[in-house]
């Protein structure tokens, strides 16, 4: 192969590599998350003691998962104190820090509250007592005719 042919092959290979690189660079961007009620997530700021919600696009950028140790937890059996757990946190608009913990919206009254208590158990709505994890909402009490 003569010198000109080698140069042509090298330039062609370089252009092909550049084209492939540009294709992957432009196609691996973040997936657009729609902003709908179905993509909205609910959170509770543990520092401000207030609830908030994030849109789908905000949830894609303002939520993180961290590993935290159970060490120092007097309620946890000693055999589990050295374990680490995954914790989901959201950036709170109140504190400006990752102090948001998962919350639920009550299907009955709309109150937003922490999903779990300090022992890790699911909570009932503090306003109306509804269990948000129940398969069906509780039946309404019958009204008495006047």
Could you characterize the architecture of this molecule?
- The protein is an alpha+beta fold and about 150 residues long.
- It has a domain at about 40-115.
- About 20% of the residues lie in helices and about 25% in strands.
- It contains 2 helices and 6 strands; from the N terminus they run H-E-E-H-E-E-E-E.
- The protein is elongated, with a radius of gyration of 26 Å.
- The termini are far apart.
In which range does the helix fraction lie? 10-25%
Q: Which structural class do you get from the secondary structure elements? A: alpha+beta
The span between the termini is 102 Å
How are strands sequenced across the largest beta sheet?
2-1-5-6
Number of strands: 6
Largest sheet: 4 strands, antiparallel
Contiguous uncertain segments of 5+ residues: none
Q: What are the secondary-structure elements, in order, as H or E?
A: HEEHEEEE
Please give the radius of gyration in angstroms. Answer: 26 Å
Gross morphology: elongated
Task: Tell me briefly what this model is.
The chain contains two helices and six strands. By secondary structure, the chain is an alpha+beta fold. It is elongated and about 85 Å long.
Descriptive labels:
single chain, 146 residues, alpha+beta, four-stranded antiparallel β-sheet, two-stranded antiparallel ribbon, 2 helices, 6 strands, elongated
Layout of SSEs?
Blueprint: H1 3-27, E1 41-45, E2 50-54, H2 56-62, E3 63-69, E4 84-90, E5 100-105, E6 112-114
């Amino acid at each position: 192969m003569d010198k000109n042919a080698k140069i042509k092959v090298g330039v062609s290979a370089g252009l092909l590599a550049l084209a492939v690189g540009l294709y992957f660079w432009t196609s691996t961007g973040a997936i657009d998350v729609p902003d709908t009620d179905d993509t909205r997530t609910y959170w509770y700021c543990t520092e401000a003691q207030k609830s908030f919600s994030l849109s789908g696009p905000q949830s894609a950028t303002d939520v993180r998962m961290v590993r935290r140790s159970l060490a120092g937890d007097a309620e946890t059996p000693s055999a589990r104190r050295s374990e680490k757990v995954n914790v989901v946190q959201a950036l709170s608009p109140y504190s400006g820090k990752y102090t948001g913990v998962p919350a639920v919206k009550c299907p009955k009254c709309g109150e937003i509250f922490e999903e779990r208590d300090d022992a890790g158990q699911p909570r009932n709505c503090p306003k109306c007592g509804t269990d948000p994890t129940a398969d069906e909402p509780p039946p309404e009490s019958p009204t008495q005719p006047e």
